[in-house]
């Protein structure tokens, strides 16, 4: 009942203050209006021609001149007879601003600086007396207590008339008592630790009482800092951490009750920061698991629950809406508890990491369900807590199996924060999610590098590709990234960011790229790792797949095949659901790069694998080393067909269509040349490959010209002519070097006949190709 009355009194007091501010504003406006009326009266003094209604409208406000005494502006009406009324109000405004500044300095700044200077003066005087041995230590300490008590006495005496000034004196007096006690204990050893501790505890209680008495949060902060300083000031390095942390827990409980009662939330933030800084510092520098196991777990849980309950009390009792700073505090408290607890669990012989993660999820689930069922707080708090439950449940299984929980944790946080930001239209959350997303991606890349090393140099036995925690974690992270992309593209979830914001650009363009990179390397790392491990086992620790021709060639071809299949999947998904031109452009660029790799290196590797399989009679991967060349041909054909559909859908421009068609013919010629070289080499006719290759190129060039004439496609005809020129240059510069007479004869006759056929076709269809009525090229 007393609490309800106190809260009612506080609410009414705040209302009175609001009304007083409104009254002051209205009084200022009345003064300006009355000044204007007086000026108008003086203007109208020469012509007294007014209607009764006008007189009423002028005389009515004149009766309210009594307000002048309330707002203390009686002299403002003594204005000279000038027509400009605004000039009469400007000096008043300037005077009031000057008075406000003077009042601020005189009432606030001067008192605080004065008490600070006084305290410094007391300590300077004490130091002088100590240095010159003017008084005994006992007298020095007594004088210090007298000075502190005197300041407190004066503060109490002045409280009724000068409360603000009195509160400054009170804080200064209490500070003097703190430090005098510390000096008496530490420097002069005039009291035992228990007595000093008890006195400082009494001073802390007195400071809390003064804060409540004066209703000043600054005094409460002084009590808080003093309370935390006591153990450090009086420490004898005895290592009694249980007493120390118990004292901190008791202080936190009392201070946070005061914080909640008076709605001094800054106390909560200060206690939160100081407590975890102290605990983490001890954990890092002084913690010994076998000596401090019980202490560490007990007070870790106590501090977590104290701050968690206080946070919920603000939301439930005070009906406070949560903001970004609240989300930061809640997440910080949850993850500090989790990370430290995870580290403690790591010292146990058995692996309890997964169980500890589930316990965290259960705590937040219980609280969220209580809030939902009893409707104790804003529904947004329920969703936030439910998000934490999802986070911990998501990482529970991977955490139990391996240590990739950091990456999963950051990823889950990124999804949670982005979802909150988009559903609540809070831009700050979306910005925070950007950093968390980048952190999770960089952490995943780090995990991949470590995972690749484990394939090459396994520490504890063979690593199983696709059956390991890194692969499972990668799939979960890719799924999380996909969820963010889905929320971002869903029109149901509108953003609070401005159009063109860098954050929106990140989510629309950069983040989908991160998702594709993640999804690609989740499988690529496993495939590459398999061949690294295979090579390492075959060659005693040399894990680079390129150290061995057979393993290296086959592994590289398999990776290229995987890249092709991945690109085909991206194009199909893009055409069916995403319909993004940027993704189509990147897919086309990836295909072009793969075709360059195919023509410049992969075809040669395929020939080496086939020749090694048939001639040496040995292969690491059996008949797959031969069959894979035709798998590559089939997958390449499928990829080019799929890319044809993608180009037609997203790039209908003629240049794109022509470029794609020329690339197809180039790849087809490359495959034909590779097949010819492979089988002539296997038949022992490798000395004649120059002649046959030139004839093959000539035939293909003639086919391009014929096809260009038939389809009326100029770019095909030009491609055929260019190929003829390349073939002729190859014939004269490369083929004829060291060739016999028969070879030269066959080469020249064959290419000559082909050129004559091409020339005949041009002459036959010249009217169609070059006449005025020539139709435009069709694709």
Task: Give a description of the structure.
With 779 residues, this protein is mainly alpha-helical. Among the domains are: 2-84; 114-236; 548-684; 690-779. It is built from 26 helices and no strands. Helix 9 (241-262) packs parallel to helix 11 (289-316), helix 10 (265-285) packs parallel to helix 12 and helix 19 (549-578) packs antiparallel against helix 20 (581-616). The longest helix is centred in the first third of the chain and has 46 residues, at 86-131. It starts with a helix and ends in a 9-residue tail after the last helix.
Overall radius of gyration: 43 Å
Q: Which whole number gives the mean pLDDT?
A: 78
Percent range for β-strand residues: under 5%
Assign the structural class, choosing from mainly alpha, mainly beta, alpha/beta, alpha+beta, or little secondary structure: mainly alpha
Secondary structure elements and pairings:
Layout: H1 2-43, H2 52-62, H3 67-71, H4 86-131, H5 137-158, H6 163-186, H7 193-214, H8 217-233, H9 241-262, H10 265-285, H11 289-316, H12 324-346, H13 353-374, H14 379-401, H15 405-423, H16 427-456, H17 469-489, H18 502-538, H19 549-578, H20 581-616, H21 624-650, H22 654-682, H23 689-711, H24 714-735, H25 741-764, H26 766-770
Helix pairs in contact: 4-5, 4-6, 5-6, 6-7, 6-8, 7-8, 8-9, 8-10, 9-10, 9-11, 10-11, 10-12, 11-12, 12-13, 13-14, 14-15, 15-16, 15-17, 16-17, 16-18, 17-18, 18-19, 19-20, 19-21, 20-21, 20-22, 21-22, 22-23, 23-24, 23-25, 24-25
